[in-house]
Design brief:
Number of helices: 9
Largest sheet: 2 strands, antiparallel
Structural class: mainly alpha
Number of strands: 2
Distance between the termini: 35 Å
Low-confidence stretches: 81-85
Mean pLDDT: 90
Number of domains: 2
Radius of gyration: 18 Å
Shape: globular
């Protein structure tokens, strides 16, 4: 089976079944993965741009939360600005806890801001396609999806 057929079937199932994934970490990971596909230049991916935009926006709806100041933040980010993982105020840490924290420190779900990565990928895709083809691609997106996506990124 040619690669394009496999990608076609994979994306069809992925976009159709992503709503079934309820765990936030997995939804964000799927959103990151879909975002990464935008810069492949694949015709199959571009044909599903509207669906990808919708699913990543839905993942953003799930993971973006307002902090006490009203700023919109990725709720799954655990690293502070220095890149270190904050330890809770607990007197003892087991080896297992320490291993989990070290692993989380390298996990893209906890170290990559979905909104920023999505914006970066859309910008890179726009540069790859050129303004005319990019604008044509945006015309394939329904108004509701476009409005939702614009709450998070610049299109």
């Amino acid at each position: 089976m040619p690669q394009e057929q496999v990608l076609d079937k994979l994306l069809n199932v992925w976009l159709d079944k992503m709503d079934v994934v309820t765990q936030l970490e997995r939804r964000k990971l799927l959103g990151l993965a879909l975002s990464s596909l935008l810069t492949t230049g694949s015709r199959i991916v571009l044909e599903r741009f509207c669906g990808i935009l919708l699913k990543v926006t839905e993942a953003l709806n799930d993971v973006i939360k307002a902090d006490e100041t009203g700023a919109q933040l990725d709720s799954l980010m655990i690293a502070d600005s220095s890149g270190s993982i904050p330890f809770e105020e607990v007197e003892q840490h087991t080896e297992h806890d320490l291993r989990r924290k070290r692993l989380a420190a390298t996990d893209p779900v906890h170290t990559v801001v979905l909104r920023d990565y999505f914006q970066q990928q859309v910008f890179e895709m726009k540069n790859q396609l050129g303004s005319v083809q990019y604008e044509d691609l945006l015309q394939t997106v329904d108004c509701e999806t476009m409005d939702q996506a614009k709450e998070y990124i610049v299109l």
